[in-house]
Amino acid sequence: MENTIGLEIIEVVEQAAIASAKWMGKGEKNIADQVAVEAMRERMNKIYMRGRIVIGEGERDDAPMLYIGEEVGICASGNAEISCHPDELIEIDIAVDPCEGTNLVAYGQPGSMAVLAISEKGGLFAAPDFYMKKLAAPPAAKGKVDINKSATENLKILAECLDRSIDELVIIVMKRERHNDLIKEIREAGARVQLISDGDVGAALSCGFAGTNVHALMGIGAAPEGVISAAAMRALGGHFQGQLIYDPAIVKTGLIGESKEANIERLNSMGITDIDKVYDAHELASGETVLFAACGITSGNLIQGVRFFHGGCRTQSLVISSQSQTARFVDTIHMKDQPKVVQLH
Question: 23 with 108, same domain?
Answer without folding.
Answer: yes
